[in-house]
User: What shape does this take?
Amino acid sequence: MNAVLSLPRGAPLDPGSSAILARLLNDAFEGLDGDIDRVRTALSRAVALVDAASMSVEPIGRGGLAPWQARKILGLVEASLERGVRITELAGSIRLSPTHFSRAFKTHFGRCPRRYILERRVARAQHLMLASDRRLCDVALACGFTDQAHLSRMFRRLVGAAPNAWRRARFGL
Assistant: This one.
């Protein structure tokens, strides 16, 4: 139940995440004088944020995407998580047929494009739940899910816990 979906290995934290991490670590440091719950919460959030850099995007096998194609696709996926992106749009962006693209994507990343996009949406939801106090319905919409129930179904399928339970576990509530 402690699963945290993640971003590509070696991917630097974006400026917003770096600022959040710095704030969390500072909060933990200040809480060392006696507020152990504050330290636990801040460190739990920081670990989850840093853990977001642990997933590999190294090619799994031969016949995958070229490095420039993988970078372009990852950028498009990240930029379109809220609105959604079609496989045909991704394939067209690197001038491949949808079938060839799907095969090359799976060879490169070890999973199909739809699964990868779903994982990225859930990872973004996890990040938003840790970095803010947004309501789950707002988090769901910000991550491209149709509603909170859709987020909950997909979150439970990938992480193994309901979003609210996962969030509470991270804050020691």
Q: What stands out?
A: The chain has two domains: 15-55+117-168, 67-110. The radius of gyration is 17 Å.
